[in-house]
Amino acid sequence: MHFFSLPKKDYKLLLFNDLPNFFLSLLRHFIFTLLFVSFFSASYFTSSSYAQNVRFSAITTAEGLSQNTITALIQDQQGFLWVGTPDGLHRYDGYSFVDYKHLPNDSTSLVDNSITSLVEDKNGDIWIGTEKGISKWIRNQNTFEQIKFNQIGAIPHTQIRHLFKDNKNNIWVGSKEGLSSYQSTKNEWIHFASNNQKLSTLKDLPVSAITQDAKGNIWIGSDSLGLYRITLAQTNEQVKYFDTKSGLLDVHITSLASDAIANVLWIGTKKGLQALHLDQIRNQQIEDKNENKQNNDKLFTSFLHKPNDENSIGENHIAGLLVDKSGDLWVGTASQGLNKYLNSKAGFIRYQKDVYNPFSLSDNTGIKVLFQDRTGVFWFGTAQGGLNKYDPEKIKFRLYRSVNDIRKNGIQDNNITCFYKDDEGKTWIGTKKAGIFRYNPNIANGWFTQYSRYSHGMPSDDVTGITQDLYGTTWCSTRDRGVGRFSYKNGNLTIIQYKKHWEGLPSSRIARLFTDKKGEIWVLTFEGDLCKYNRGLNDFEVKVEGEPNLADNEIMLSAKATDKNTIWVGTPTGAYLYDVATETIILDKRKDLKVWVSSIEEVGDSSVWFSSSKGLIRYAPKKDSLAYFSRKDGLPTDMIYSVILGEDKNLWLSTNKGIARFSLQTLTAKSYDETNGLQGQDFLAGSYYESEKGELFFGGKDGYNAFFPTEIKDDPLPPQLVFTEIEIFSKSLPFIDFITRVENPLDSYILTADSLTLDYEKTGFSLEFAALHFSDPKKNAYAYKMEGLDEEWTYVNSGRRFVNYPTLPYGNYVFRVKAANADEVWNEEGIALYINVSSPVWERLWFRIVGIFMIVGIISVFYIARIRRSKNQQALLEKQVEQRTKELQEKNEKMTDSLRYAETIQKAILPTETELKEYLPEVFTVYKPLDIVSGDFYWFKHLGDIVYIAVADCTGHGVPGAFMSMIGSSLLSDMVQQNRTLKPCETLELLNQKIRTSLSQQDNRNSDGMDICFCKINLKTHQVWFSGAKRPLYITKKDGVFKEIKGDRKSIGGKKRHKEEKEFTTTEIQLESGDMIYLTSDGYADQPNKDGKKIGSLQLQHVLKNIGSLPAQKQRQELTDMLSVHQGDTKQRDDIAIMGIRV
């Protein structure tokens, strides 16, 4: 214990005061005596940086546990945590729990709810020990099966106490009834009962704990009969027994843990903790219960609770043990919390529930479950407080603060305003209301000494700066009472009022106190006066006068002395550079910046960085340019209080939303918050400091943080990823039945599923996924993409760990997910689910080919039959005029019927208005064939967020035109479905090739083809990609502006010319919601009236411009009416097709 005593050479502070000396002396004596008593009882107790930086967070029934009593815990190979309680089993993914319980009428459920132990076998199945036997969870089925012991000589094993998997993947079962081992390679059980003479000592052994040492020996702890070692050999098995005669403290073993590095077996009993030194055990070949010849002092080391020794173990009743990945021992007790063993000298650190500390353990009782997961996070199960999580890598910053119990910290004000570390290694800390605290790390646990207005004559307790000049004198500045100076004269304090000695100081309101590179003292007032201390005059001199508009300023100013004998000064309106040698301002950036500059940092000669109220600003002196970085560049906020260049060559920023690390290489930011150990979100302007050793200090309203930047490391382990749930049409799929072969779209339970098969009529499904990295699950990030539908990754936070697809076009897809941990380290490989959506019959290629041949065949058959009949009856024409006329009429009717049937087939291929409006709410078509069947057609295809539309004018009309339209429509559908990444121009080029190939135009003079207007539209972004073959695209903007986008002067199909043809081009257009686009054939514009005058393209454009603001169906009516009026009794000249769409 350390008692209070004055330092050998106590500081005294030179300040000024006008109080009478007698009254002042009396007052000082009273206050000093009072503070002496308070320091004795409080000040030497200080913050333990280790204790404050071990933070536990509790997971209880409030987070989804069915009960706060934790009895078992493991992590499986996928990364899930499995938690056992007396009220069932829980699977945890960091966000929520999936519960498993016993169902009386369900043989595939748990055998009992009272979980006692858990283990995972080599197949990934979970063995669950309960009070009524063992259940095994089958991973790929999500069902349970009961492990039965019904063969001759088997141990019943109902009250399971411990399950353990050894290094050969054998499962050991310990219960109140005895010990058994499941040999996984042989698929058989070994029961340690009386039929094996060599193992007869294990008969009816009440097992409480099982573990394995580095040599492969199995250690069995008994509930009442001591400790056993089973040496496994190929032909010989030996048992060694330890009891109190061998040196055990107690035969009631509660827990065991093997330390392979130290070659120690840790033994927890009800009477204390012991270390069994395995290298001290004699190599005996037979069991010897009464062995007492060994040197027990060398064999066992005992650790017992000592009431007057806070470094001893918390109590003797040990509940659980854990040797972590670093070889450290953690000890859970029955009623006194958690202990960590440091070494034989330092002893134990105790962690207990503290009502004043929200980050302490949630409960001190029954800590029998101790576990460290794959990423290094610790989990401690309690009897009444649920699970406690501790991540040693998450707390990256040392925290110092005063708490409700002031004895834990000598700092009596958490509003930290400034810092300084002197050449003796002592840290000076300025506060808002309690003066200065000096931290001495050379005293055990540290020691804070307070210097305040009433104890040591500080000018004010509102401190704004601390520094040391080149003569070793420590100075301080205050917000309202000027500057003070510490000295060692006779150990006495002298109070001097600042106005009497510092006449050169224009204001008592000091914002910054600092030294230049020569160690000279400078101050900066809130009014903006820059002053230098003149040692010869023992006074301050004003070097730069303040700004008139800062007379009542309360905003903290900043200053930074450079190696070039210059000083950067930050003000509420910008910054300027002052040359000490010439005593002039050589660079003034206040007019350019026009922002509050809260701190300044130089990075060599290349750049100067300003923290400001509008983000981080980089000034390049050589280019005289400014660059701004804000929230849009990854900073947590635009309010930056300070910037320091750390030893890691990154900039460190304090803000009103935590601390950020800004990379000078990538110009990106990484943010840290309270979960990383920060004092809070909001820091204080001016409260920052870098020591000579590179340690950084940032102060806020609730304490301060200190750290070395090179020690702040990101977690290098990317998270494991799993799919956690799937729903099809809002129905969950928790099981898959391999016995009855019930149809299921998954190939196994979702945790292990690789593929999903959906029917085209039932494609709506949703998926949920999780990154199993438990350091800070809320900060895990995700990205997903449906290959075959999405071109880019969609990035989401942990609140959007799901995706929903209401509809999915037929085809094959791969849904991929990747994730990052809280430090943005990504698992780029991720996970994938292969999805197949079966296609409808009418979308299959064979159906389309058959359909085309049927149409062509029907038309051809009737056409040939008509010609034949006509020739046969020509000779009888004169004699049978009336009869033949009648027959021709009958034949014409039959031909018309056939054409009507062909018309029905053609219309079936055209998209219906209902199909169009499902994806294009405002759309209309004007479709008027010249004959029964048409050579014009319109076409539509929807794939995800993209729709494809076209209006085409085929060569001729009637039957030839219809034939060509069928070919064109089918080819377009196939090309888009097979390759969704084609640009419109590429689609037309491919269509051109296929038409020529289909019609063999390279070998004959067939010149049939089509003119077409083809568009690809993104429904979300309103982007349109257009390509035309002699057909334009018309656009009417919502503001009335009309545009014509002309197509290429080239048709689809026709005989290929000898000279090289120009390729089709794509025009990309960005539209806004409400704009109209029109696709047309030439039939409407070419329709003449009775005088032979056509409507014309210009007239059509004029009409489209005027009707663009009308509803779609009203536009259709206007166009139809105009055509009817213009045409009158004149016959229709050509097929007509128009499609209008509002985006």
Key features?
1143 residues; alpha+beta; Methylamine Dehydrogenase, Chain H; 6 domains; six-stranded antiparallel β-sheet; five-stranded mixed β-sheet; 15% helix; 36% strand; flat
Describe the structure.
The chain has 1143 residues and is of the alpha+beta class. It folds into six domains: 1-44 and 412-552, Methylamine Dehydrogenase, Chain H (7 Propeller); 60-350, YVTN repeat-like/Quinoprotein amine dehydrogenase (Methylamine Dehydrogenase, Chain H), CATH 2.130.10; 555-713, YVTN repeat-like/Quinoprotein amine dehydrogenase (Methylamine Dehydrogenase, Chain H, 7 Propeller), CATH 2.130.10; 721-839, Sandwich (Immunoglobulin-like), CATH 2.60.40.10; 840-909; 910-1142, Phosphatase 2c, domain 1 (4-Layer Sandwich). Strands 67, 68, 69, 70, 73 and 74 form a six-stranded antiparallel sheet that branches. The radius of gyration is 43 Å and the shape is flat. The model is unreliable at 1-51, 283-294, 404-409, 490-500 and 735-742 (pLDDT under 50).
